[in-house]
Design goal:
Order of helices and strands of chain B: HHHHH
Shape of chain A: globular
Helix content of chain A: over 70%
Largest interface: A-B, 107 and 76 residues
Shape of chain B: extended
Order of helices and strands of chain A: HHHHHHHHHHHHH
Number of strands of chain A: 0
Oligomer: heterodimer
Distance between the termini of chain A: 19 Å
Structural class of chain A: mainly alpha
Number of strands of chain B: 0
Radius of gyration of chain A: 20 Å
Strand content of chain B: under 5%
Distance between the termini of chain B: 40 Å
Number of helices of chain A: 13
Structural class of chain B: mainly alpha
């Protein structure tokens, strides 16, 4: 059993390098997604440094997008708290699941560090490793994925500044395209998800038009609609407890265990 | 006057807390089927709510945004992945705004 958590051990050094290698395809995907996020950040009035920081600190596409839209409207701070909480709620589930994979004897500091970049994909490769989680494997993966994500966002914001208007307009839908590619495949497989997505589209459109609720900010509408629709879905169509979470972006293939 | 850096710090703090509390304090798996299902459905609902009608207003012309949405839905339904769907959406906006409208 591995009880030594120092990077000096041969096994941990190997795990670190393996993590880096496994994160290369993830980093490539991150770069593309975060570039689209950077365009959105630019459209919201954020500069390159702010775009870099938001991605370096948050590591989440939907969560960052939701927050950036709040920033675009300069809505009250409480709104950015709630919207970040909701758009990232699924990470709670992933972290809980990952905590089951952690050696109780592992030094506490590793729990604090490993938690930093639990994303759909990085959770996926960590959970796929045999045995207890090796934090050095996670750090290797983070070292590749995190800069790709943060610099990709920054470059997107810079591109938003220097590219002609027509190109920025076209690139503005890049992130939405990725969102669509995330929600459609599970909608094909699961009729409940299909129904919830259809209801969400309709309700979101209605909420942007109806008097009263359309006066609320975009962030508030996202919070309210998500709470209502996801609660209704969970109440009327609960998933069986043993169903494993299927939080994985389509483009990321399962890396083979080396 | 609200400051963008404060928004960013709040976002970073909340994002980290969501990830760190479960591995440090809670640690126990969630048993409630309601909470499990809720957390499972939330990302799809949020993404759907955030995508429409926002995509229609993101472009210079709403028609281009609507065309991108439809093209993206069809491409994704037919099995295109994350990156191809995204590129298709961008291309549809570019073509619609330049050659059709």
């Amino acid at each position: 059993m591995n009880t030594n958590y120092s990077i000096r051990t041969e096994a941990n050094r190997k795990a670190f390098l393996l993590g880096m290698r496994h994160a290369v395809p993830i980093g490539t995907g991150y770069f593309a997604v975060s570039f689209g996020l950077g365009i959105t950040a630019h459209n919201a009035g954020m500069n390159a440094l702010q775009s870099f920081l938001v991605s370096f600190l948050c590591n989440a596409s939907a969560g960052e997008y939701a927050g950036i839209r709040v920033i675009a409207e300069l809505s009250p701070y409480i709104e950015v708290v709630l919207v970040t909480l909701i758009a990232n709620a699924r990470y709670l589930l992933m972290s809980l699941s990952l905590s089951q994979k952690m050696d109780p004897d592992m030094p506490f500091v590793h729990r604090l560090l490993v938690a930093y970049d639990i994303t759909d994909e990085l959770f996926g490769i960590n959970i796929a490793r045999p045995g207890y989680l090796n934090p050095w494997y996670a750090y290797g993966a983070y070292l590749v994925a995190l800069p790709s994500w943060a610099f990709g966002t920054m470059l997107g914001a810079v591109a938003g500044e220097i590219l002609p208007k027509a190109a920025v307009s076209a690139l503005s839908v890049a992130l939405y395209g990725m969102f669509i590619a995330i929600i459609v495949p599970p909608s094909k497989k699961d009729r409940v998800v299909f129904g919830l997505v259809a209801v969400s589209f309709a309700a979101s459109w209605a909420a942007s038009r109806l008097p009263g609720i359309s006066a609320l900010s975009e962030g508030s509408r996202t919070i309210i609609l998500t709470l209502i629709i996801a609660s209704a879905g969970a109440y009327f169509f609960p998933k069986k407890p043993q169903d494993p979470p299927q939080h994985k972006l389509e483009s990321q293939k399962e890396p083979e265990n080396a | 006057m609200r400051n963008i850096y404060i928004y960013i710090l709040i976002m970073g703090g909340v994002s980290y807390l969501i990830r760190v509390l479960p591995v440090t304090i809670f640690r126990k798996p969630i048993k409630s089927p309601f909470v499990q299902s809720f957390l499972y459905y939330v990302p799809y609902v949020t993404l759907a709510v955030m995508t429409f009608p926002a995509i229609v207003h993101a472009t210079q012309s709403p028609i281009a945004g609507a065309a991108a949405l439809i093209a993206g839905l069809i491409a994704s339904w037919l099995g295109a992945g994350l990156f191809p769907v995204s590129v298709i959406c961008c291309a549809v906006v570019f073509i619609t705004e330049h050659f059709i409208l």
